[in-house]
Amino acid sequence: MGTYSNDAINQLKALIDQVEEPLKRTYQTVHQGYQAETLARFLKAREWNVTKAHKMLVDCLNWRVQNEIDNILTKPIVPTDLYRAVRDSHLIGMSGYSREGLPVFAHGVGLSTYDKASVNYYVQSHIQINEYRDRVVLPTASKKYGRPITTGVKVLDMTGLKLSALNQIKMVTIISTIDDLNYPEKTHTYYIVNAPYVFSACWKVVKPLLQERTRRKIQVLSGNGRDELLKIMDFASLPHFCKREGSGSSRHSEYANDRCFSLDHPFHQQLYNYIKQRSSESETSQPIKQGSFHINMPEPAVEGTEIAKTIESQMHKFEKGNGISGSLDRLKIKDNSDHRTRNCP
């Protein structure tokens, strides 16, 4: 980091050092010992404006306290069948690590339906994955590689996108807004794979709306991206939908048992068992009851809403003008610098 960056980090640190409990305690949970990297993330999200970054971080800390986020990893979603339904309809998982030690998170953008549980369960589960990543996965990787690892890479599978998926934009927007405001700059690179024909045209509409820094993070790969991704990770770390030769999803391939979205995958087994163990060790432990962990839902940013409407309008043009029935190419991207939630077709 340059002198300008270091000066901004030092200024922000001086301001954050003045916060009192309980904000100070939850701030420790956020930075996990990597203060400079954490402060830099919030500064990047606000174009290195110290005043705006300070407000963003304090707002984040207040959100965490008000919603008891520090305790969310002691709140398992039960019964297990309900959690399995959440996992089967919100397709996200961790498939491995890049050669640089960055965790690889896979997202089944096109096949996620969000129709097996209430909004609160999906939000709870998403935040639990975020917190497990930040408190367990990233610190473990940092120790292993002997350097701070505070970001990961995301591989977004566009297989199966349909026009009906527009109905899920509200759910995706809620999750993305939570990430934008409270987990900024956690993704080093977005890799887009299995993008259908209409993606390129819709991408032309959305791309100019993104910040340049965000555009540089996005790489649209040919087919399932297998060959390109093998340049940065070993075969074992590839998401299952990238392991087939050529293009297309491997949803029904010989790698179906390696689906990192499934509750049976080692990542989700470790995560779920970790939460159940933390719950049993909690001083205030009570018999686990069914019921979601309610989070105050943020208002989506105006910019994100406008982008979502632009995408929807573009897709309807495709449907009417090209006879493409039920086809939608939507890509979820976050630009944390200005609260924007992106759903790029």
From TrEMBL:
Q: Record's superkingdom?
A: Eukaryota
Disordered: annotated segments: 320-345
InterPro entries xrefs: CRAL-TRIO_dom, CRAL-TRIO_dom_sf, CRAL/TRIO_N_dom, CRAL/TRIO_N_dom_sf
Basic and acidic residues biased stretches:
329-345
Matches recorded under SUPFAM superfamilies: CRAL/TRIO domain, CRAL/TRIO N-terminal domain
- Quote the Pfam families the UniProt record gives: CRAL_TRIO (PF00650), CRAL_TRIO_N (PF03765)
Can you say what this protein is called? CRAL-TRIO domain-containing protein
